[in-house]
Amino acid sequence: MRLLLVRHGETPSNVRHLLDTAVPGPALTELGEAQAAALPEALADEDIEALYASTLLRTRLTAAPLAAARGLEVIVRDGIREVSAGDLEMLPGESAEGREYMRTIFAWAAGDTAPRIPGGESGDEALARYDAVIAEAAAIGAGTVAMVSHGAAIRLWTAARAHNVDVPFAAARPLGNTGVIALEGSPSDGWKAVSWEGTTVEPAGEAGPTGERVDTAG
To answer: Where are the coiled-coil regions (predicted)?
Structure first.
């Protein structure tokens, strides 16, 4: 299966760099709406057979133009929502608490899944719910599946599950609004990331694209 993990369009909380993870969450900004409208053209070469979005409003709004263009129903699943910020909800991402949120998430990606976001979830819980939706999508037999999800959750799952993406790589590559990570594989055989926002992904440990410091969640 080819799996396209798409971050949602820009929201007011993204502009303000806030940890905004609760359901239903904000709608899109004017720029976010334009980003969503551009997705059908950006993914024109992808033969998408199934389209998923999380329970947060911003992902469903982002998925809507693509669904309309392809004649697809948006399958809404809670499992691909953002990693819950818990007690850190609506704090600035650049604050000490915001930085700890991302450090905890990347510790999960490295295999230390027991720690819990204060008032939120553990890595075991976050990865299990995401895995369940991926498994559901794989079971329907579609060749290419797109999932509109969230920055921290996408980077966590990709770093934890793609054999060629390590934590330093994922931590150095913030995912822009409507940025896409493309993977190929299956739950049984494992996953390989083939591109990260259009850049080919090198094997873990080898030279690859670098980017900015760890960012806040989307």
So the answer is: none
82 is catalytic: yes
* Catalytic residue selected from 10, 46, 82, 121: 82
Concerning whether 197 is annotated as a catalytic residue, the answer is no
For 36-60, the pLDDT digits (tens) are 999 999 999 999 999 999 999 999 9
The tens digit of pLDDT for each residue in 106-122 reads 999 999 999 999 999 99
